Structures are given as C-alpha cells and as structure tokens.
Amino acid sequence: MNTTKILIASLFFLGCLTANAKKSGLSDFEKDEMQKAISYYDNNKPDIAIEIYNNLLADNPKSYIINYELALAKVAKGEYAEALKITQKIERNSDVEDKLFQLQGNVHDYMGNRKKAIASYDKGLKKFPKAGCLYMEKGNIMLMENDPNGAINLYEKAMEVEPAYSSPYYRASALFLGSTEPIWGLIYGETFLLLEKGQRNVAIQDAMVKRLGQAIKLENDTLHVSLTQQHTVNMKGLNLIIPFELLYELEILKSSAVDKLKSEKRDTITISDFIEIRKVAANAYKDWENRYPNYLFEYQKKVIDAGYFEAYTMDLFKDVYADEYKAYVANEENQKTLDAYKAWMTKNPFEPNENKLIIRKEPQ
Fold first, then answer.
1. Fewest C-beta in 10 Å: which of 154, 186, 201, 272?
2. Does residue 15 have a pLDDT over 80?
3. End-to-end CA distance of the chain
4. pTM of the prediction?
5. How many CB atoms lie under 10 A from the CB of residue 146?
6. Which of 27, 28, 47 has the alpha carbon at shortest distance from 37?
7. Where are the alpha helices (DSSP H) in 196-308?
C-alpha cells in the first residue's frame, strides 16, 4: 500500500479518532507543546510533530495522550510497526480510551492482518462495550471481506450502542442507497446530515437525491415508486402486520408531489418535491410510531409542527440544491424563517440516544 492510499485509508477508517483526545495530567507547557505538535500533524508535517512528542516523552514517558498522539503521527508516516508497539505499551493505561483500540486495530489492518485487527477491536469492546467506533471498524472489515450484510449489521449495532455517533449512519446510508432497500439509505443519510457537517455531508446529499430520483419512475403514464422489496404482509393473531418499509412507500405514493410528477409527466425530483415527499411520510408517522418507533420521524414531525420543514430541508440539502437555496435565501421572508429555524434548532437539537433510536427494528 503506497503513502497516498494510506492517507486515504486513515481519513476513511479513523472516523472517531481526533487530535483533541483528553489531555489529562499535562502541565501548561506540555499542553502548549502538544497543541503545536497537533498543528504540525494537521498540516502534514508528522516529522516535526514526532520530534515534539519524543521531547515531551523524555520527561513524561507514561503519558497516555502524548504516546497516543505519537502513535497517530507514526501512522501518518507509515511507520506501522512502531505505532503498534506504542499502542500495545499504553493499552493498560488508566486513561485509555476506545479510540486507542480503534487505532491499534487499524494499524493491524494496514499491516495486512485483519484477524488481529478484529481481535484488537474486540479487546476494546470488552473494556468499552458501547464504543460505536469499534463496531463500525468491524463493519468496515466485513465490507472489505465482501460481506455487506455483515457490515450493515455491525454499523447498526454501532448506532444502537452510540446513537449520536455519525459515521455508522454515513457508511450504512452509502450501502443502502446502492441496494434494493434505498429507503434506509434515505433515513440513515438524513440522520447523518443532522449529526455531522463537512465534506462527507455533500456526498450523502447528492447520493440521496439521485437515489430517490431513480426510485420514482414514470412509465406509460404510470408512476412507479421503488424504495423497498419488503412487500410481504403477515398476520400475527388477528393483527395484520404491514412492513414499515411498505407503509413508507405507500405514503409517498399518496403525496401531492407524486401526483404532480405524474400530471407533468416528469420524474426529475425538484427541491419542492423532495420536501413534500418526505413531509407526507413524516406526517404519517403518528399512525405507526407505536409499532415502528423511529426518532428521525419523531424529530421531523416536531420540525413540521413548528412550521420549519421547508427551512429545515433547505438547510440540510443546500449543497446539492445550491441554486434553489440561493434563490430561497434571496427572499427576505425566507431568510427570516431560516434564521428563526436555526434559533429554534439551537433550543431543540437533534439528539438520538438509547431511548431515541433510528435503526431498523422488528414491529413492536
């Protein structure tokens, strides 16, 4: 693996590794030096960062955070064996974090040993059973082993144990959008957009809009919506069990946006269509919330009731609908509404937790 590929892999897999790990037990001088080293690391100058870390370790050799950051810098240089030794040296430190086992497992992976990578993630999960990043990394290994279903199961386990951790939603969304169940790609994708801002955000926006457009097709004056293959209806006692995915798809077919697409004989999704299609499904949530609880729909309904769903959607998808967003904010009243929505969201943040999950579930 060459240096370019290594750097790309680091960006892709070190989803919850940050340079801002806790700096417990450091003096003010050490904190200042650490900040300098981190700045050099962030600017692709790991050699200088390593020199600073080594100088600090001469006086504080047992520091967890200094050793951890040194290991990160070693990985950036491709010095995997040295990075691995450092992670093994500090894995029993009282300040150890789940990210240490993530880094250790990733280093094993970079060195071509996926079995040892899994062992490191599992070792971390014994100590940190709610570490979403470790389940996510195991999912990444499954994906590299050509087991997308296994990967999705692990990504969803990461969502379950650490619901506010954004990366598993990103990865699961990408997989589902390319599958026969894009409905979950839309759900996990929107969740990711609410949890994280950045470059990955734009890619998911684009993938979601394109996939919805592919799922709605006009053929011989008949409009087809294909977001799922879960069309089997079951009986449980005297109760008819309709899959959530089918309920969602049927609600979309009822939307005025779909009627408009049919009457205008088009299947290109505008921002107005995108708003209406998602809004009608969110409004229907009250009919299935007890059987299929889902925090994303709960939150969408809250936004709708506050009168901000258009502003919410414009803000979430402003990159992929850039021209429409520009025209929207050019209107003074729209800008006021958008500002009001942002103020509202500050007081009403999107906060998934163990009681407010977004993952797929069996009907309750």
1. 272
2. no
3. 47
4. 0.89
5. 8
6. 47
7. 199-215, 244-254, 256-263, 271-283, 295-306
